[in-house]
Design a protein that fits this description.
By secondary structure, this protein is α+β, with helices and mostly antiparallel strands. 31% of the residues lie in helices and 27% in strands. Helix 6 links the parallel strand 3 and strand 4. The protein starts with a helix and ends with a strand.
Length: 211
């Protein structure tokens, strides 16, 4: 038999041909995986920094923390009563931590771990809002200022939409920019993976401009 269709036909099964997608390649011979990898790469949608104007830079941040016990959830600079807190050396605010890394990355100023080392007791249970203010001060010392922030929180709980505007206002206050330059979105992983049950993840893109 040359293929499955021939085997089914020989067994008396009526075989029908339907139009397919040329990009749906079959792995048959050594080297086919290279072709398939190219097809998949052309269809992927990687997280990339947006195009920016002269005198601007963009950075990407990501953070994730597991659910823990003791205390209320801190997320995006807000407190969510009745929700389990996130484990972390500071208050575990994955949303603000992603924003901090995006801002620092845009300025090539390290990351949250280098600015606020987790092995230093002074940062234990620290308010991540104050950490974000510290990151903004680091940018200003280097001649930069935040221009815009886009934050996406991936969580099965809590629901972000009811407090989206409040979270955007808090981020604007911490970054020292207008709330109209802040984007906040909440989504779920449809019950899949880490952010489906074990904790919360956050992605952020930030644009900075010369001060």
């Amino acid at each position: 038999m040359t293929d499955e269709a021939a085997a089914f036909g020989a067994a008396g099964v009526v075989v029908h041909a339907v139009a397919g997608d040329p990009g749906n390649q079959k792995l048959t011979e050594p080297g086919d995986e290279t072709l398939v990898a190219g097809v998949l790469a052309s269809r992927s949608l990687p997280l990339v920094a947006p195009a920016v104007g002269d005198g601007q830079r963009a950075g990407i941040g990501f953070d994730a923390h597991r659910f823990s016990e003791g205390g209320a959830l801190r997320l995006g600079g807000l407190e969510f009563a009745g929700e389990p807190r996130l484990a972390g050396h500071s208050d575990g605010d994955a949303g603000l931590h992603a924003v901090i890394d995006a801002l620092l990355g845009a300025a090539a100023a390290g990351d949250i771990g280098s600015l606020f080392p987790p092995d230093q007791a002074r940062w234990r249970d620290a308010d991540s809002g104050e950490l974000l203010r510290g990151a903004v001060s680091t940018l200003q010392a280097a001649g930069w200022r935040p221009a815009s922030v886009d934050l996406t929180i991936v969580a099965a709980r809590p629901t972000i939409a009811p407090r989206r505007d409040e979270m955007a206002a808090r981020l604007a206050e911490l970054c020292g920019i207008d709330a109209g330059a802040i984007g906040v979105k909440g989504t779920t992983s449809d019950g899949l993976g880490f952010a489906g049950a074990e904790g919360i993840a956050a992605f952020a893109v930030a644009v900075i401009a010369r001060a």
